[in-house]
Structure formats: structure tokens, C-alpha cells
Amino acid sequence: xxxCSPVASIWDRTLDxxxxxxNAVTLxxxxxxxxxxxxxxxxxxxxxxxxxxxxKKKMAGTVST
Length: 65
Hints:
By secondary structure, this protein is mainly alpha-helical. The protein has one domain. It has helices spanning about 20-50, 55-65, and strands at about 5, 20. Strands 1-2 form a two-stranded antiparallel sheet.
């Protein structure tokens, strides 16, 4: 809703206003989401390293997670 200033310039194109670049916002959101996915994916790896299991069983645990 507040992507343009003044807000009325969203629906009234006769007003002079500036709007944010929605492509840049979408790209930034996608990059942040990808980074979050990798962080969430990597979190259990630290716990798996601490387990007293063979490397083969640890890899199986990583793949099944």
C-alpha cells in the first residue's frame, strides 16, 4: 500500500509521485528466502556431527532429514 509517495499516486497517474522498484523488492525477497532455506538446511548438520555414529549413518540421517 505504501509503495508510492504520495499514496494516491498508485491509482491517480496524474499525480507526480515516486514508487519503489517492485522488481528489486521481489529479488531481495527471493535472495533472503534462499539464504534462510540454506540456514535451515544446515542447522541439523551440527547436531549430526556430535552423534557417535559411523559416517555412513550420519550421511543417511542427513539425506532423510
